[in-house]
Design brief:
Blueprint (H helix, E strand, L loop, with lengths): L7 H5 L5 H6 L2 H22 L2 H21 L5 H20 L7 H19 L4 H9 L5 H5 L1 H31 L2 H10 L2 H16 L5 E3 L10 E3 L3
Antiparallel strand pairs: 1-2
Helix pairs in contact: 3-4, 3-5, 3-10, 4-5, 6-9, 9-10, 9-11
């Protein structure tokens, strides 16, 4: 029997947005992906040496990975940072254009924009796919909880808007060859905008019906689902 509806994220996580932050990589993951780019633009702005800026950024990603390894933390985001910075540094070195350091990340953002948009249009909003398992409802929201499916769709459009804003700001700066402002915008539109999207996602889900918690498999091979009670 349905209980009183409450903010889904808050019920599964007393901190409200904490589980959402972790689901999208955590603050530490965003630091791993953001700080090397900041180091690159600082070194390049001061010395105007593409090789030095690239080596500084790449060296920092390696150092962050080593720290995670020593602390026995996940290397997923550190590894992604090493790959991203390495590709960006290589492209910039080959082209001789410092702004190309940021090109792979910008293209990746465009890919995410398209993926999130398509997922919302085909009624498989990616936010629901990502958060369903985290919040214990798996994919029950799609066929048994239309209110949550609508909320996940709205939240997915929030992230589409995030990627669209980034592209609208970054690509003109890239085409203008303004490396300093491009790097600054990349950092400014990184963690801050990401946190705004997290908060808006939580607000949307807070107004949605409570998730249908998926129970453990029964002995007969079936499953039972019940609406979360406050």
């Amino acid at each position: 029997m349905p209980g009183r509806q409450a903010p889904a994220a808050a019920e599964s996580d007393p901190g409200g947005t904490a589980s959402l932050v972790e689901a999208f990589g955590g603050v530490r993951g965003m630091v791993d992906m953001t700080v090397p780019g900041l180091v690159f633009v600082l070194v390049y702005t001061i010395w105007h040496q593409l090789a030095a800026a690239s080596l500084a950024a790449f060296g920092l990603t390696i150092a962050l990975g080593v720290v995670r390894l020593v602390r026995r933390e996940t290397l997923r985001h550190a590894f992604g940072g090493v790959i991203g910075v390495g590709i960006g540094a290589f492209i910039a070195w080959k082209s001789g254009k410092a702004q190309d350091f940021y090109l792979p990340g910008m293209i990746y953002g465009l890919v995410l924009l398209v993926v999130y948009m398509v997922s919302a249009l085909v009624r498989w909003p990616l936010i629901g796919v990502l958060l369903g398992p985290v919040l214990g409802e798996n994919m029950s929201w799609r066929t048994q909880n239309p209110g949550r499916r609508a909320a996940y769709t709205k939240a997915t459009w929030v992230w589409v808007a995030l990627f669209a804003v980034r592209a609208a700001v970054l690509f003109p700066l890239y085409w203008a060859g303004n490396v300093t402002w491009l790097g600054a915008a990349k950092v400014g539109l990184g963690v801050p905008l990401w946190l705004v999207a997290i908060y808006l996602t939580w607000l949307v889900l807070a107004k949605a019906p409570a998730p249908l918690k998926v129970a453990e498999p029964l002995i007969g091979g079936g499953r039972k689902e019940e609406r979360e009670r406050s």
